[in-house]
Design goal:
CATH superfamily of the largest domain: Aldehyde Dehydrogenase, Chain A, domain 1
CATH architecture of the largest domain: 3-Layer(aba) Sandwich
Strand order of the largest sheet: 14-17-18-13-12-19-20
Number of strands: 21
Distance between the termini: 65 Å
CATH class of the largest domain: Alpha Beta
Number of domains: 2
Oligomer: single chain
Radius of gyration: 24 Å
Helix content: 25-40%
Structural class: alpha/beta
Largest sheet: 7 strands, mixed
């Protein structure tokens, strides 16, 4: 992608493109070349964006469903029609291989498509209240109404789809949204702003503000934005929750996904290929990327070499090459951290079975075994292309190993035993169990989130709409029931 000169790419203030007071430079993670410059709004522009969101909130909350659904449908179609351009933008700013960037665009289009359907059927319910003599003739109508304008803070690893997971539910319920994209990856969110501006949404329904930490903290504290939806690291998320204690805060934080290979699983080649791919497919920079591989001792001797071969077979390199499966991390500092954590684990007794090397921002897909429990690569979210193998004796030990984490988004369970699957759902401290596969892509139409340190709230469209709304009760008296 050519650098954009001399004018920085505009930010979006209450639905209008504007140049900022300053600018930031976006560089390609693979080779450090300049991709584009981006307009950074000043305090007066930020104030206008927030004021517009607060001003339009009541009007937008009461807007007809067809207006919101029509806007969402246009966005979904526009994303699909501009898929190649948007995928190139994702790869240029994020370093994600093109094959995964193309899938991200398709997922974002489906996120908005699901929101179209949900906007048309935002549910309510009728409740009889004549359960006591004093409430005879009373009937309640319970509806869900938008809590108010939303501050959506998005991470770098899915610069389109995780913005979509905030914008689509907000627009579906009639909540204005101020989007703060990650500083490393603002381009795709700004491109989405272009598409949003093509709709009939009222002025103030959206703004896209590439901002630094201090300016973002001011937005978190602003009482005119009563809802904060954040996706990102645990420490930052909990700091936001502390700073916005009187607000409705929705967090989706880190992960440390596990995959369990059970003694009854008979297709070890499939399990090895799926774990290898979805532990590394975005250089491990996904909260649901497999990090811990827990293998029953009865199949370990056969399985582990298959896993190592599958990891070594992944194609690493230039993310614009359509055959490449693993590209760079978001920057060289992130790659240096992963390299350091791997080295610390090896120094503490872990054995390196594959990878372990670094070239600039690219880390070779890595497999470790005999990893100490307290090593960062086992206990923390690596957010890099690293798999840690642990061999266990039986299901009890396997489930204990899965739960040996402060994170709890999802886990994969390779078994043919339906009873074991139900037991896993009951006993594993995770938000979801994938049977016969690994966590791979976000399921846009279902609840998404987790337990433990993964945060609170769910990012599936319908569940996010529930998070962004509150119940309002209308009671009728003297009603014939």
């Amino acid at each position: 992608m050519d650098a954009i000169t001399p004018t920085p790419r505009a930010c979006w203030i209450a639905g209008e493109p504007e140049q900022g007071e300053t600018e930031l430079t976006v560089r390609h993670p693979y080779d450090g070349t300049e991709v584009a410059s981006v307009a950074v709004p000043g305090s007066e522009q930020v104030e206008r964006a927030v004021t517009a969101a607060a001003t339009v909130a009541a009007e937008f909350r009461g807007s007809p469903a067809h207006l919101r659904a029509g806007a969402l449908e246009h966005i979904s179609r526009a994303l699909s029609s501009r898929a190649e351009e948007i995928a190139e933008t994702i790869t240029a700013e994020n370093g994600k291989p093109m094959k995964w960037a193309e899938i991200e665009v398709a997922r974002a289009a489906s996120t908005f498509r699901f929101a179209v359907e949900e906007a048309r059927r935002l549910p309510g319910e009728m409740q009889r209240l004549d359960t006591e003599p004093s409430t005879e003739g009373r009937l309640a109508l319970v509806r869900r109404m938008a809590r108010g304008p939303v501050l959506g803070i998005a991470p770098f690893n899915f610069p389109l789809n995780l913005v979509a997971h905030k914008v689509a539910p907000a627009l579906a319920v009639g909540a204005p949204i101020v989007i703060k994209p990650a500083p490393r990856t603002p381009l795709t969110a700004l491109l989405l702003g272009e598409i949003l501006a093509e709709t009939q949404l009222p002025a103030g329904a959206f703004s896209v503000l590439p901002l630094g930490n201090a300016e973002t903290s001011a937005l978190v504290a602003d009482e005119r934005l009563p809802v904060v939806s954040f996706t990102g690291s645990g420490p930052v998320g909990w700091a936001i929750a502390d700073a916005a204690a009187r607000k409705h805060v929705v967090l989706e934080l880190g992960g440390n996904a596990a995959a369990v290979v059970c003694t009854d699983w008979d297709d070890l080649d499939f399990a090895a290929k799926r774990i290898a791919m979805f532990g590394n497919y975005q250089a491990g920079q996904s909260c649901i990327a497999v990090q811990r591989v827990i293998v029953d001792a009865s199949v370990a001797e056969e399985f582990v070499p298959k896993l190592v071969d599958a990891v070594r077979g992944l194609r690493v390199g230039d993310p614009h090459d359509p055959e490449v499966e693993v590209g760079p991390l978001v920057d060289e500092a992130a790659a240096e951290r992963v390299e350091r954590w791997v080295g610390e684990a090896v120094d503490a007794g872990a054995r390196l079975l594959a990878g372990g090397s670094r070239d600039g921002a690219t880390v070779a897909p890595t497999v470790l075994t005999d990893v100490p429990r307290r090593a960062n690569v086992w206990a923390e979210e690596v957010f890099g292309p690293v798999l840690c193998v642990r061999i266990v004796d039986g299901v009890d030990e396997a489930f204990a190993a899965v739960n040996d984490s402060v994170y709890g988004l999802q886990a994969g369970l390779f078994t043919r035993d339906a009873r074991l699957a139900f037991r896993a759902c009951a006993e594993l401290d995770v938000g979801g169990v994938i049977v016969g596969d690994v966590p791979s892509f976000r399921a846009d139409q279902m609840p998404y989130g987790g337990v433990k340190g993964s945060g609170v709230g769910r990012e599936g469209v319908r569940s996010a709409m529930t998070d962004l709304t509150e119940e309002r009760v209308l009671v009728f008296t003297d009603v014939a029931l």
